[in-house]
Amino acid sequence: MTHARPAAPTTPLLALLLLILLGVGQPVAATASVVRPADIDTEVRAAIAGARLSGQGSLKVFGFHIYDARLYVGPDGLGSDLGGDRPYALDLRYARAIKGRAIVKRTRQEMERIGAGTAEQRRRWEQQLLGLFPDVARGDHLTGVYRPGRGTVFLRNGRPIGEVAGAEFARAFFGIWLHPDSAAPDMRAALLGAARAS
């Protein structure tokens, strides 16, 4: 009597699983909503006087929810230069567990795709982020706060985990979501919904 072996996973299934783990794909349409100041992390409020929600969106891959993103700006809004003199913050709330190394790898790939920084800068930033970004679980928040003249401070669930100096890094990192050539144009539009000065 022979026993049938279970079928091996198909290549498309493996590709789907890889996409989910790396947090890549096309975002769903997103809308802006109002968040009370009490809901904004203390560090964001400290860095951005009068912080307000500019917009938010969700990233889904083949229907699987990866994360929700929120962009906060100050009363003067977001400047045209992501490394300029206006502070802002991007908060990602993860809907599933993802390894920190996978987040960093995808970050570097997206920086390269939008042409941000040199190859050497991207290698250096990747090493810095490997030392900062933890594995995330469902419900965890990773927040990047750009502070002009200082650089980008990263928080996990509202607690500082480190920073990367320089305006060039801020342009590259936040450009993943906010650059005109972002791989997620719908997400970009949703985040920038109310980014101009109020």
Fraction of residues in helix: 25-40%
Q: What number of structural domains do the residues give?
A: 1
Summarize the helix and strand pattern as letters: HHEEEHHEEEHH
Task: Report how far the terminal alpha carbons are from each other.
Answer: 75 Å
* Quaternary organisation of the protein chains: single chain
Structure class: alpha+beta
Task: Kindly report the spatial arrangement of strands forming the biggest sheet.
Answer: 1-2-3-4-5-6
User: Judging by the overall fold, what is the CATH architecture?
Assistant: 3-Layer(bba) Sandwich
The CATH topology name reads Chalcone isomerase
Query: How much beta, percentage-wise?
Result: 15-25%
CATH class: Alpha Beta
Instruction: Report the count of strand segments.
Output: 6
Shape: globular
CA radius of gyration is: 18 Å
pLDDT < 50 runs, ≥5 residues:
1-38
Q: Specify the biggest β-sheet.
A: 6 strands, antiparallel
The chain-level mean pLDDT equals 82
Question: Main traits of this protein?
Answer:
disordered N terminus; 198 residues; Chalcone isomerase; six-stranded antiparallel sheet
Task: Walk me through this protein's architecture.
The chain has 198 residues and is α+β, with helices and mostly antiparallel strands. It has a single domain (27-191), classed as Chalcone isomerase (3-Layer(bba) Sandwich), CATH 3.50.70.10. It is 32% helix and 24% strand. The chain has six helices and six strands, in the order H-H-E-E-E-H-H-E-E-E-H-H. The chain has helices at residues 11-22, 42-47, 100-113, 119-130, 167-178, 185-191; strands spanning 52-61, 64-73, 88-94, 141-147, 151-156, 159-165. A six-stranded antiparallel beta sheet has the order 1-2-3-4-5-6.
